[in-house]
Every structure is written in C-alpha cells, then in structure tokens.
Design brief:
The structure is a single chain. The protein is α/β, with parallel strands linked by helices. The chain has one domain. 28% of the residues lie in helices and 14% in strands. The longest helix has 15 residues. The protein is globular and about 50 Å long.
C-alpha cells in the first residue's frame, strides 16, 4: 500500500509539472541517442503555483531520513515553483485544511497514522 501511495504522489507531482520526466529503462536500448538533459532550473522567488502537504507521522520506528526527505521536497518546491508544508499532525487531515493542497505526500510514515475519520 505504501508503495502505491508513493507512486500516486509521484504521478501527481509529475502531472503538476513538479518533476522532470523519467528517463527510459536502463535495460532498454535507445534507438537514437538521447537529447542532452535541460539545464537545471534556477531557484525561483515567484509565487508558488500550488501547495504540497508532506505528512511524516510515525506510529512505529521514526526514521532519521525524514528530515532529509522533507528538505529535498522543499528544495524541489523552490526549483519547480510549489510551496511545501510538512507536518506530523494527523489532526490536519480535515476538509478545511486539505482543500488548500494539490497533493499530499506520505513520507516515511509507519504504522496506522490516521484514524477512520481522517
């Protein structure tokens, strides 16, 4: 289930233009040489085009990589023009709060982190 959620989040970010296209599989031989990768975008101070909520609550082991993951998503947001808000507070999962975000990323969550109402 966690893999499916990560895949759905990646698809949502890619659809919003926040992720660069994924290269073809390493096992597939390209018919023609691949074009040069575009230059990395520079950091932007423009107003974010959308918001992402990064949820990091754990009901089990709390991984040390969570901070690095949040930092990486924030950096991606700066480069691709979206705002990032990170929380481990499950009470934020209400209609009033979630309507402000285009997508929610469950980052290294463990165990049952939401109740039935959330």
């Amino acid at each position: 289930m966690r893999t499916l959620i990560r895949f759905v989040c990646a698809v949502a970010l890619a659809g919003a233009g926040a992720l660069a296209p994924v290269a073809a599989s390493a096992t597939a031989a390209p018919a023609v040489p691949a074009p040069a990768a575009p230059a990395a975008p520079t950091l932007t101070d423009a107003k974010p085009t959308f918001r992402v909520l990064v949820f990091t609550k754990t009901a089990g082991e709390r991984r040390s990589s969570i901070k690095a993951g949040v930092d990486a998503i924030r950096e991606l947001g700066k480069r691709r023009g979206f705002a990032v808000e990170a929380t481990d507070d499950a009470t934020r999962f209400t209609d009033d709060v979630l309507h402000r975000f285009r997508t929610v990323i469950f980052l290294n969550t463990t165990g049952d982190v939401l109740d039935a109402g959330q």
